[in-house]
Pentatricopeptide repeat protein
Amino acid sequence: MFACKSSAAQIKPSQQNTYRDDSRAYGRVSPREWAANKQLQYLKDPLHIAEYVKKTLAKDRFDDALLVTRKASRDTKVTVSWNYLIDYQMQEGRLHAGIKLYNEMKKREQYPNAQTYTIIFNGCAISPHPKLAVSEAIRIYNNMLANDRLKPNTIHLNALLKVCANAEDIESLFTIAQTANDGIRAPNNLTYTIILNGLQRKVNKRQHGRAEEVDSPQLAKDKAKTVQRAKAIWEEVIAKWRAGAIIIDEELVCAMGWILLLGDWHDADAVEGLLEQTMMIPKEGKTKISGGTKKQASDSSENSTDTVPTIAVENTKTMAPGAPAYSHALPGRNSLSLILTALQKTGKTARAQRYWDIFTKQHGVVPDANNWHRMLMTLNRGKNSYQSFICLQEMPAELVIAKNFRTAMNTCLRDNLNRASFTHATRIVQLMPNKLKTPDPITLRNYIRVCNATKRLMTGISKKKKLGAPLKAFVTQLATAIKTVWGPYAALEKLYGSDGPESNMKRELIALARKMIAASDIVVSNKLLPLDVETDIALRRNNLNRSVVRHFEEMKAIDPNFVVEEEVEDDEDVEDEGDHKMPPGGAPGRANKTLDGASKGKTATTGSQ
């Protein structure tokens, strides 16, 4: 019995010492280190460690993931875990922290792999410090070139080119491009796409900058230089494409096409030839291109006089598994926007519908919102009010925004020599409730301008004395416009009529009301319509006038220096006005125009009636 007690007494202190040792060990390390040690007791495989690091980083517990990786690096190759850590810092925009991890990784004899460098270069491409990113990325890339252990490949080349392109460092871009070879750094379609996009980005950013930069002769020279550089690159692309060294996709074609649009008329006109060359979309009047032999391609290129020659690609070779099914680029939304923009610039807008049908019907391209608006802009250049209405009618309602209606109405405004333009404009306004949740006051105001702009077609109307049937036709047209606009105006009044005078929508509403008042004055003062029609218009005119006067009184209460400007007659010669936004009604120091000088001085200046 005593022996048993003695034995038990010997075991118990031993267990206590063990727990005490654990307690002391716990006291020498932080809870985080203790947790990391516990994790590594169960994570022996590098794959499992990498999975744990990835999940930990997803919870934004970077310090925990870093500690586990450092401890595991003592006796295990955990390169993937280090890659996750570097990528996390790069995605957070911490360039220095990512490079520091890369250097620490090497010091711990964790050798970077190809994916490590890809992560670093991609991180540099999205860095908020582009110039610093370029210098760091080029330094690492040059070290790779000098190191025999791991040479940079095409993926690394493309990633570094993207870093230079995003930083708009064109000289470094071409310097790195010269390191390409015919081996593991052979350029592919993405290589040329990045280079062309980098060229375009450099010039395009300045093109949409300050006005003095946009109009500068230096920018024009830079555009011409960019186009010439791109053409030289494109010759290399075509040579490699013919040799079967690279493929051509829509992204590459469009990268070249958008640069051509930076050039002159002839460069923009070459976009049609570019699509014919790379996508087998024939120009107007030509038969569809089919694949042929190299001899046929040579004959075709010799006989062609186009800026960009047609290429027929041999399709008799046996294709390797996984090779592209098509030898040419497939049309898509980007190329559809490209050709529509080119037609808009060259003025060959009559071809727009043909290309639209080829893309949407023959190639199954589903247009997006940008494609639809590009089509409307092209029709605007061609002053085709009917096709603008048809385009807007066919456009899916979920893609329609107010800008589309403004463009279509502006087309009717430009098409004022067409007797049917007012009819098309009326149909556009009638289409608005089915396409927009809220009517657009700018479109409605321009609709009344369309009514006034077409009065020149009514022969026999004198600006001093409007008599006879032509005048009655014009007044009837004004009455139709007022009736058409009244419903959308009432909807806007219900939504924004109670807004304060500084509300932009309230000001647009008042500007529309002033247009309607001016049109109503012409109808009522000429007394050419049935009495009931004139009475109804007069009542509506008075309601509108009360709203306008109330708005101006509120404006004067806010700004004692507020002055109501008199409205002047609309210009009959209408040109494209960009986004078509007119000055809001009642803005201090800004004049709003009416339809006719007959109403000058009468609109919203005589008080409520």
